[in-house]
Each structure stands twice: as structure tokens, then as C-alpha cells.
Amino acid sequence: MSVTDLRAALTQPPPPRPAPVDAPVVGAAGRLVAGWMSEALVTRLAQVVFLAFVCFSAAGAWVKPLYDWDTVAYIAVAMEPDYSDPVALHRDAFALVEKHAAPAGKWYFFTAENEYKAHQYANAESFVSQLPMYRVKPAYVAAIRALSGVADPFVATKIIAVLSTLAAGLVVFWWMSRRGFAQAGLLLAPVMAIGGFFHMALLATPDMPYAALGLAGLYLLAKGRDWAAVPLLLAMFLMRVDAIILLFALLLAALAFRTAVKPLAVTFAVALAAYFAISAAAGHIGWWPHFVFSNIEIQNTLVGFAPEFSLKVYLEGIFRGVVLAVRDYNWPAMMLVFIVGGLMLVRGGVRFERRAAMLLFALLLAFGGKFVTFPLPVDRNYFLFVVATALVLLEAWKPRMDLAGLSRPGR
Fold this sequence. Notes:
This protein has one domain (51-397). Helix content is 72%, strand content 0%. It is built from 22 helices and no strands. It has helices at residues 3-11, 24-36, 39-63, 70-79, 86-101, 107-111, 115-122, 124-130, 132-135, 138-147, 153-178, 185-195, 197-202, 207-222, 226-239, 244-257, 261-282, 287-295, 311-328, 331-347, 354-373, 383-397. Helix 3 runs parallel beside helix 12 and helix 7 crosses helix 8. This is Glycosyltransferase RgtA/B/C/D-like domain-containing protein. Keywords: Membrane, Transmembrane, Transmembrane helix. It comes from Methylobrevis albus. Residues 1-22 are annotated as: Disordered.
């Protein structure tokens, strides 16, 4: 053997050893699992997992609700037509909450957790001055009053939470099942959980019914049933009048994509007129005082509270919102993932239909519009936008998670 042959033999890499996954038994097991995980089975599994998550959330809303101070204010507004004396209204609203919260060990949370809550509990005039900020959710207040015939207002808020949680979940379930991406339920359940669905279900606030109505309206828009979407979008607006931002974003997107312009123009025009009427009837303090109250400094009383607009204070509120959003909440990171994911889908050859592109554009505008007008960054304020964006992207992608194809020869 020559020196060259010897050097070649010494430097030649050893033959590759078979990896464990190449072992016949492992390969056979993989083919067995792949054959068992059929498209039909994975689709049913995804649907069952998703519905289980929704039902669990609804059960939590009834069995273990979260106690939010806003509940007192919503109950007081629902009871308000039956009272002429603000002191009596204050007394009975807190007494009703005490009846339910004290046995659960949560009474301290409503009355003494911080200086603001202690002041509201001790001062009827200050408490009543806060109510205009809650009167501007007329549909939610009307729902509490409608159910008060069969349950007291506190229990009525729990009933609304349960029903709206089920409704929101069923709209998403219907959307993914009817539009051919039911297997994405395995992704939507964690997306909704991270986006705040379970937390929203436990709260007695208008956020979940607002989301349920909004998702239903957006689904009808996605299907091209524009006029059918109008009453649902208006009901969403009456649940939370700040939904005017989403309606305006939808109108701008409709104009840009030249689709559904008339129905969305009518929707926005009606909502805009109703916005001013509702605000005036509620005695709302106005956008800027509400901005300062929620984003700069809470006020014990809103009597005489009329701060002058300040660009410096506005920018401070925006900066505070950005810091809190990045530090404490999930929706900014989720939206970044969705934007990158959408770009990757386009690069991979996925073509978005005109309706889907319109909705994505509107939702992007709504995110920005919501934040710059009122940068309170809690996840529940953006949940509707997050889930709707996820649904539009997943419908275009239609991810498959079944493994049946792996069992075919050559795979």
C-alpha cells in the first residue's frame, strides 16, 4: 500500500451509523401512526379540543368568575332607572355586590384594595360621577336589566358572560368548520387562550358579548353577506361604542378594495349618529377627560373634571401604553407574529381573496386606530382584532395536521 493510499484510508470518514429513527421498528410504528391519523380523525379531534376549551371557559365563567370593580358600576347603571336618590343607588348597588362577593372572600377587593375603591365605597356622589363612563355601553346595560326579571343584576352579569362565551366560541367554530380549516382548531384554542379568551369569560364586562357580535358580523362580511352583517355590527357597537373605530376602519378598507361599500357606509353613518346621541344622553365626560382618567391618572370624582388638551400629556399616555403593552400583555407580540406569518404565506404562494385582504387591512387599521385614540393596552380591548386576524390568515392557509399522507409509498 502506498503512502497515498494509507493517508486516504486514515482520513476517510467512517461509514454513517443508522439513526434510531431509521430502525425498522420505528419506521413501522411511524407508518402505523400516520395511517391512523387520518384527515377525518384529526379534523374531529381538533373540533372536540376546541369545543372543550370553549365549554371549559363558559363553565369557569359561572363557577369561578373574576370579580372586577367595574361590575359595581355596570350594576348601578342597570339599577339606575329605578332610583331617584343617588345615595340609595350607591347603597343598594354595593349591598348587592356584597351579597355575592363577601362569601367568596372578595368584598375587600371592591371596597378597600386601594384608595380609589375606598373612596368610591365611602362617597355616593363620587361613585355616581363615574357612571357616565359605563352608560355608554347601552346594549350591555339593557341585557342586565332584561335578565334582572329572572335573576338579580349580579347573577345577570354571570349569565351574560356564560352565554356570550359560548356564542363567541361557536362563531369561531362555525367559521373554521364551514370555511374548510377545521383542523386549525388545534391552533385557535391556544391563540384564543393567549389572547385573553378565558380571562374575558370570567369577567362581568361587555367585552365578550362585544367580541361575539363582532366575530359574527365579520364572518358574514367574509362570506359576502354584507347587509346581513349590518345589524350584528351595529349591535356590537351598542355593546361598546368605541367599536366606532372598527366600523370606520371597515369603511376605509371597503373604499380601498371597492367592496361592501354601501352596507358599511350605512353602518358607520348610523353608528356615528348614535355615538353622539348616546354620549349626550349618558352625560359622558368626553374623549379627552376619559383619556386622562384611564391613561394618566384616575380621579376619585369626575365632578368638574375638565382638563385642557395637552399634546405632552397625550404623548405621555401613548408612551405609557406602549410600555405596558410590551411589558404586560400578549397582543403586540401576537400581531407581530401574524404580520410575519401573513408575509410568509404570500411569499409561499398563498393568494388572499379580495374579502380576506379587505378584512386584514381593516383589522390592521383598527389596531392602530384603537391604540392612538385610547392606548389602554389590556388584551381584552384587542381580543376581537387578534382572533379575527388569526381566522382570516388560517382560512387562507388551511393548515393540515393529519399524517395520513406519510403512509403512502415513497414518503
